[in-house]
Amino acid sequence: MPNRYLIANWKMNLPPEGMDAFLGAMEDADVAVAPPYVYLKDVVTSAPKNVLVGAQNCADQKSGAFTGEVSADMLRDCGARFVIVGHSERRNVYGESDALIARKLALAIDAGLMPVLCIGENQAQRDGGYATAFCSDQLRAAAVPQLANASEVVIAYEPVWAIGTGRNATGEMVAEIAAAIRDALGRFWPADLARRAPVLYGGSVTPDNVDDLLARGEIDGFLVGGASLDSKKFLALAGAMKTRFATQ
Ligand code: PGA
After folding, report:
1. Residues contacting 235, CB < 8 A, separation 6+
2. What's the pLDDT band for 247 if we cut at 50, 70, 90?
3. Ligand 1: residue whose CA is nearest its atom 7
């Protein structure tokens, strides 16, 4: 799935139609799926070859006495190819700090997983005019030395106020932040990696707003929650991306 990413973040849910029915429907689509940990192997086994499988989280330690945690190495052993780190639900519900997320990012790279690093401002930061500065700070905090060894790191811009709320960012907002993200990557990250890093958007993406989000050509794909639990909606997003990128 070179450079274009459509990632299903199932969170702590399974598709109501059933996992196998969902995966079967993805036969011809270039998509990625992040199921809950315990279904990872099942999804790796039953997903069509074109589906990239990854995890929603990983531990910030390599191994040891960390009850309830799952290491990046273990995820790779289960067949995961990527891992989401720093999702806003991890940051806000579970109190994960920039420093902890930086450790996860480093371990994911060490394990040979492609990290999908989530960043994004909350409503107060947007209202205060700090959205771009906040995202840029989050990228600076994630500038770990291991980035020099990474073949690819994906950035997912997910404004907290847009996640699961039905209030997506407009295409215009996303284009503005995407440009700021590329600028910050250029300043804080290894040049080669920064140039190649795909930038995705996430937050209430649906088949109804996907065309507006893609229209300005600033983003490389989407990290999708709610609409990724329904194969028809998810395939509609894949179709919109295919059309958009085919015409570029
Ligand atoms: P949403 O979730 O599409 O349901 O807003 C996106 C995400 O949290 O990754």
Report:
1. 25, 26, 29
2. low
3. 225
